[in-house]
Amino acid sequence: MKTLVQEYNLGKIDITDSSDEIIQLKLADHSSIKDLINKGIKTEGSFCSFEAGLLAGMVERMTNIHCFAQEVNCSLQTGKNYCEFMIVFQKD
Which of 12, 45, 52, 55 is most deeply packed, by most CB within 10 A? Predict the structure, then answer.
């Protein structure tokens, strides 16, 4: 996953936790926020749904297990230089 994100210039990824059920990660310098960060722009709610869908699609393709991803913290809310995502695998 780290290789794909780096290869396609999707940002800088740091996987903070992973198990058979979830993957938690931080993504910095991605397209939705890289030009907005440090400009005083604030949002409410999730902003980076494109990246969430992209991450879910990548993981689903790599594992052949249906999953979904959600942004849990956005840098435009927190002021940090990264957004946090959680990818959850669907259990039958």
Answer: 55
